[in-house]
Write a structure and sequence with these properties.
Structural class: alpha/beta
Number of helices: 8
Number of strands: 9
CATH topology of the domain at 7-35 and 88-196: Rossmann fold
Strand order of the largest sheet: 2-7-1-8-9
Largest sheet: 5 strands, parallel
Low-confidence stretches: none
Oligomer: single chain
Shape: globular
Radius of gyration: 18 Å
CATH superfamily of the domain at 7-35 and 88-196: P-loop containing nucleotide triphosphate hydrolases
Helix content: 25-40%
Bound molecules: guanosine-5'-monophosphate
CATH class of the domain at 7-35 and 88-196: Alpha Beta
Length: 207
């Protein structure tokens, strides 16, 4: 029997380095599946439709909401973002550890719908580092940077709602990715996630 995968919600302010940490973990651990979200924001340089996001119009996104095609959604920096039902359904049952890289509002919607989901907040070591990272990206306007920093302050209020914290220090991506992999390993060892084990141990199902 395939063991059910973990539904893993990963949040953190824009500039925390979530994407880099997740990519590093996924390169080394093939049990992860990355849920590709839908968004109405424009692609950044180098971003590919259906790889980074499903880039859609506002009209299309509003159709998704009406049709129940998104399991959670929010508005962030004046754009819609949402997790597509088609990206998550069945993947955990197939044994994949499904990563939802989403912000705090979406994370709380997921926790309500799927209480067994595990939530991780990835943070830079301090606020100044966050600001430096956003500026060095060079892909955001000054106004956008300010909006993202304000949003980061707001997101920190939800810190206590998360199950785990990972601090992503500069030049320590591998260490942060190792922590993400460890969290999933530990979650798989929970007795709650292995309810049939006592029966298997005594071979009760084969009699
Ligand atoms: P960015 O524009 O930097 O790619 O993403 C902005 C924020 O939206 C990030 O915090 C990212 O994690 C979040 N985000 C991306 N996809 C989703 C989603 O499907 N749902 C929600 N709620 N947030 C998302």
């Amino acid at each position: 029997m395939t063991k059910k995968g973990v539904l893993l919600v990963v949040s953190g302010p824009s500039g925390a380095g979530k994407g880099t940490v997740i990519r590093d973990a996924m390169e080394r651990d093939k049990s992860f599946y990355y849920s590709v979200s839908a968004t109405t924001r424009a692609p950044r340089a180098g971003e590919i439709d259906r790889v980074n996001y499903h880039f859609v119009t506002r009209e299309r996104f509003e159709e998704f909401i009406r049709d129940g095609a998104v399991v959670e959604h929010t508005e962030y920096s004046q754009n819609y973002y949402g997790t597509l039902r088609s990206e998550t359904e069945g993947k955990c049952d197939d044994g994949f550890n499904v990563i939802l890289e989403i912000e705090v509002d979406g994370a709380s919607q997921i926790k309500k719908k799927f209480p067994e989901a595990v939530s991780v907040m990835i943070l830079p070591p301090d606020f100044k580092t966050l600001e430096n990272r956003l500026r060095s990206r060079g892909t955001n306007t000054e106004e956008d940077i300010k909006r993202r920093l304000d949003r980061a302050r707001e997101e920190m209020k939800f810190y206590g709602d998360y199950d785990y914290l990972i601090v992503n220090y500069d030049n320590e991506v591998r260490a942060a990715a190792d922590e993400l992999i460890s969290i999933v390993k530990c979650e798989h060892m929970r007795t709650l996630r292995n309810p049939d084990f006592p029966a298997e141990f005594f071979n009760l199902n084969n009699n």
